[in-house]
Amino acid sequence: MSDRVAVESSTEIPPPEWGRRSAAPPAAPRLFALLAALLVVGRLVLTPLLTAPALQTWATVFVAICVQALPFLVFGVLLSAAIAAFVPPSFWTKALPRNPYAAVPVAGAAGAVLPGCECASVPVASGLMSRGVTPAAALAFLLSSPAVNPVVVVATAVAFPGQPMMAVARFAASLLVAVAAGWLWLRFGRSSWLRVPSRTARGGSKWAEFRDAMRHDLLHAGGFLVIGGITAATLNVIVPRTWLASVAGVPVLSAVVLALLAVVLSICSEADAFVAASLTAFSPTAKLAFLVVGPMVDLKLIALQAGTFGRAFAMRFVPLTFLLAVMVSSALGGVLL
Amino acid sequence: MSRMSQSLVLTLLGGVVLWITALTRSYLNYVKPGFRPFLLAAGVVVLALGIIGLVQEWRRPYANAHDEHVHEQRGKHAEGHDHTQAPKVGWLLSLPVFAIILIAPPALGAFAARGEDAPIRPPATAGSYVPLSGEKITPMAVGEFIGRAWDFRKRTLTGKKVRLTGFVVRSKKKDRWYVTRMQMSCCAADAIALKVAVLGAAPPPDDTWVEVTGTWVPPRSRKIPNGTVPPEMTAGRVTQIPQPSEPYE
Predict the structure, then answer these.
(1) Where are the domains of chain A?
(2) Where is this region: Disordered (chain B) (predicted)?
């Protein structure tokens, strides 16, 4: 039973509250005015007090992560809500191969056409699952789309001038990891681990459904993004980067350390190539590990995935992806770079 | 979260994003200038969603109280399944709003750039620099100065007067302080400090923005690898300036 029907029926037949209309005025404008006033007072009273450099630095990094991710999140949520509201479920069963093992690589390769970063891919993947797409295929898409889309490939090529193989290796390694993770999930994953977000079919216009889906997804994904942002900002301020320099020369360890750095920094996949390029002390293979892990596993993504698909899912999927990403990029880096 | 709280949080978030992007330039403390159109678009979408929701709530006042109650009841059982009901985690989206308004985070400064022996990376543009004029004072980005200073063979800086703009980071060593600029590739989370040691001038307080005019001091030993110590310059003149509108390099 949907709410909208409940609301509409209560407008048609005057409910008992009818007479109380003047007694209970709408709370929205008052609450809004109150909050706005509190914020203005806080700005005048509190801001001059909150000037500890550590707090300010933390707040700058935290706000930067949120502000930077917001447009991508909004884009992903728009796309996901559009899929939920306007694309009929039958489209997906036609577009993807019946056999789930064949659907995984197709979905992974489909990630190459969607420009967006990892914040966008979580809501889109959850939208796909709730539309009946095999979870493993949606997961392959989730992993591949932030790493293999044209914007990221071009950014990587620009960040590594004279090293075209870096972009190639990143594309190949990311796609491989995405497909492998999808297949492994298909083979060994249990449906009880994964909470597929269900969408109740609702009455009302497509646009109302679109707006409701967007508002819901934005708040949901945004809330978890904030958790990731808080964690990343805290580690950013606490952990000195000098710790990294000491391991740059060690072959296998350096790849693992850069992979862990990618997890901690939670940089958007469209920008991480420039950060990787600047880590000059590290080997190309270690940088590749940074570029492959970053879009697939990072703090804000872990929070987003745990929130969207459930903790049981994130506990298994995150380590699986991390291990696969480090192994594949070490192997490919050895061959290609 | 009831529909009204959802709309309220979104309105605040969209409003604050538009405030730092369209009305002030403080978004430059967090992201690159080129990011502005995306932020504007996102702010407009979020604000519109919030305002449409608020207006809808406002327009059906008597259904409101009743409806709200029903929602609360349902929310306990069917969290996350019903789209008019958002999970409580959505409240967290008000944290960036509070952080922006109450803390008003400034651009990263001396606290973030601290760490005497932090690794310094070469600027991305290293390689092709135009020759400098011998007479005039050349204004230069801190990153370019470091890039040129590391290019030992060409020695394009020798004897040239340059002017660097940055903020002050004081050093533990008595004879120097650093003129510093943060460089970011995407947002402040990935910013790193580019430092040039200034010799022969009294240190202004931390975080003061200055213009330093001076010449490069070639390192005494060539054996020190690039990136382990900041390049040095002697200061001819140090002028205090207000913070530039684009604080990052």
Answers:
(1) 56-336
(2) 221-249
